């Protein structure tokens, strides 16, 4: 009976799991409720008001089924609820993976997971956010499966293949949390070397088989089915990184790390709380690690200590591994959830401080950890809502411009014969708030920044048709080129001048800057 099943499940669920799950829900609602209850589109979501998310040309073969849970419509509240549930499960998975015992630790991990900037950036593309976050959950669950059972690496490989098939950046998430688990075993648990290498071999098998499964699906689509992989993110050049590319990639890894942790320094803009807290956090991580190495006498097992140091040196490349897979790959905030492992690592160390009769140093470490991560989680929350604020202002600007544009079109004498729209140049909607103030006080949150999301003629067509009710087609590039060669077009003034909107036969053309 269902009641008996629920009772059994309840008896198996640990208290810290409940704290992790419900803390993630509560903190997630506090942080992201605004974007869940408002429509805040960007340049991509205009194309995805209704879309199956079948991104097979981008190598995201399983994104469609994962996003299909919330339907193929862009439904902010439904997608938000599914995403929040997946984030809560991701939090629980991390708590299970690192055997978290303290309730405060579970709450901190929940705060890190649900407010992390890559999650907020993902919600800028809300139409597909639930699929991406399910991919994160699968990547971390794959690590749990690989280390928990004798043949768990087979299940883990399947989950990892699905995760990467949702979004390739989940490869970094799997590898980063696998590496973090190994460091945790060496520095905190003090696992015997034989057991450690057994688990490492299973994690390596999981990644090899998982990527093998992904590659097979990739080849089936691109070869047997005659599909063409998109050049976006260098997906059509996977595996073609040469030795001459490596120095450039190493430089990019360093720049990306600086940009994530210290965006003000990397971009030569005023320092913010985000920069200061990251300095404190990284310092505490280093000192706490050295203290655990000393306390647990990790230095007595030279091979394990050397392995931990090697993993620490390799971690930056794990975070940005796609750089070393394709020569044309580039990173943005959506792709770096794996960096959350550094923040989670500090929680793991805090969780393993003695709760009974701690000494003064241990008490100090505990309070500094709580304060640092608490302030950082709050700052993550503020950053998320600043970006959503930017998205709201940007949408209001865009909608107002579209309304003005439609009004101008309707005032033309030849309005009734208009069937398609052509737009040249881009409109200037600049303001100091959106172009300077907000970017200088937040990390680079792709998808949510900028003055407007009207980048292409098709964007205007969608705004006029789906938001304002004017059915109109987009003129072909050939048609636009033909009009631009006319003397009439060349003499047209720039928007918003009176004659900056004209009708050429059945095509209305708008001349922006």
Question: What is the secondary structure topology, with strand pairs?
Answer:
Elements: H1 2-12, H2 15-36, H3 63-67, H4 76-97, H5 103-115, H6 117-122, H7 129-148, H8 152-166, H9 170-189, H10 193-224, H11 246-261, H12 263-267, H13 273-295, H14 302-319, H15 340-351, H16 360-410, E1 420-424, H17 432-437, H18 457-467, E2 473-474, H19 477-484, H20 487-490, E3 501-504, E4 507-511
Parallel strand pairs: 1-2, 1-4
Antiparallel strand pairs: 3-4
Based on the model shown, name its key terms.
about 525 residues, mainly alpha, 2 domains, 20 helices, 4 strands
Question: What features would you describe in this structure?
Answer:
The model has no long low-confidence stretch (mean pLDDT 89). The protein is elongated. The longest helix is centred in the C-terminal third of the chain and has 51 residues, at 360-410. It is built from 20 helices and four strands. The chain is mainly α and 513 residues long. It has a four-stranded mixed sheet, sandwiched between helices. It has two domains: 2-383, no CATH class; 389-511, no CATH class. It has helices at 2-12, 15-36, 63-67, 76-97, 103-115, 117-122, 129-148, 152-166, 170-189, 193-224, 246-261, 263-267, 273-295, 302-319, 340-351, 360-410, 432-437, 457-467, 477-484, 487-490; strands spanning 420-424, 473-474, 501-504, 507-511.
Structure summarized in a few sentences:
With 513 residues, this protein is mainly alpha-helical. It contains 20 helices and four strands.
Q: What would you report as the Rg, rounded to the nearest angstrom?
A: 26 Å
SSE-based structural type: mainly alpha
Strand order of the largest sheet: 2-1-4-3
The amount of beta strand, in percent, is: under 5%
Number of domains: 2
Shape: elongated
Treating each run of at least 4 consecutive H or I residues as one helix, how many helices? 20
Largest sheet report = 4 strands, mixed
Total E-strand runs: 4
The helix-strand sequence is HHHHHHHHHHHHHHHHEHHEHHEE
End-to-end distance: 67 Å
Helix content: 55-70%
Q: Name the average pLDDT.
A: 89
Low-confidence stretches: none
């Amino acid at each position: 009976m269902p009641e008996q099943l629920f009772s059994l499940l309840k008896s198996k669920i640990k208290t810290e799991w409940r704290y992790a799950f419900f803390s993630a829900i509560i903190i997630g609602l506090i942080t992201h409720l605004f974007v869940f209850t408002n429509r805040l589109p960007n340049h991509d979501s205009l194309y995805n008001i209704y879309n199956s998310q079948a991104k097979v040309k981008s190598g995201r073969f399983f994104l469609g089924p994962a996003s299909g849970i919330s339907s193929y419509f862009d439904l902010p509240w439904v997608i938000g609820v599914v995403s929040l549930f997946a984030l809560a499960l991701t939090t629980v998975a991390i708590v299970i993976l690192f055997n978290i015992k303290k309730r405060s630790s579970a709450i901190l991990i929940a705060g890190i997971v649900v407010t992390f900037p890559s999650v907020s950036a993902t919600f800028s593309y809300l139409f597909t956010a639930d699929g991406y976050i399910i991919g994160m959950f699968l990547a971390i669950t794959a690590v749990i499966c690989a280390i928990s059972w004798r043949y768990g690496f087979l299940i883990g490989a399947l989950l990892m293949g699905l995760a990467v098939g949702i979004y390739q950046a989940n490869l970094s998430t799997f590898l980063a949390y696998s590496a973090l688990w190994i460091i945790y075993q060496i520095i905190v648990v003090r696992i015997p070397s034989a057991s450690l290498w057994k688990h490492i071999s299973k994690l390596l098998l999981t990644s090899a088989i998982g990527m093998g499964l992904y590659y097979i699906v990739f080849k089936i689509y691109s070869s047997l089915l005659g599909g063409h992989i998109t050049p976006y993110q260098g997906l059509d050049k996977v595996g073609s990184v040469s030795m001459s590319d490596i120095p450039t990639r190493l430089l990019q890894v360093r720049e990306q790390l600086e940009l994530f942790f210290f965006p003000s320094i990397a971009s030569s803009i005023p320092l913010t709380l985000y920069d200061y807290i990251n300095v404190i956090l990284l310092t505490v991580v280093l000192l706490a690690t050295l203290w655990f190495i000393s306390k647990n006498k990790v230095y007595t097992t030279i091979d394990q200590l050397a392995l931990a140091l090697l993993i620490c040196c390799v971690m930056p490349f794990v975070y940005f591994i796609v750089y070393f897979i394709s020569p044309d790959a580039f990173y943005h905030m959506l792709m770096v959830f794996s960096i959350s492992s550094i923040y989670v690592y500090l929680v793991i160390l805090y969780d393993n401080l003695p709760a009974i009769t701690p000494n003064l140093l241990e008490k100090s470490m505990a309070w500094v950890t709580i304060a640092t991560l608490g302030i950082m989680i709050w700052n993550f929350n503020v950053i998320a809502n600043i970006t959503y604020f930017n998205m709201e202002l940007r949408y209001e600007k865009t909608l107002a411009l579209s309304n003005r544009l439609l009004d101008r079109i309707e005032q033309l004498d030849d309005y009734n014969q208009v069937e398609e729209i052509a737009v040249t140049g881009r409109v200037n909607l600049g303001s100091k708030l959106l172009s300077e103030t907000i970017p200088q006080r937040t990390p680079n949150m792709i998808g949510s920044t900028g003055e407007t999301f009207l980048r292409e003629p098709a964007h205007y067509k969608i705004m006029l048709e789906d938001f304002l009710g004017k059915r109109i087609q987009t003129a072909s590039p050939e048609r636009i080129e033909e009009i631009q060669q006319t003397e009439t077009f060349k003499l047209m003034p720039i928007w918003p001048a009176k004659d900056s909107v004209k009708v050429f036969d059945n095509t209305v053309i708008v001349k922006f800057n």
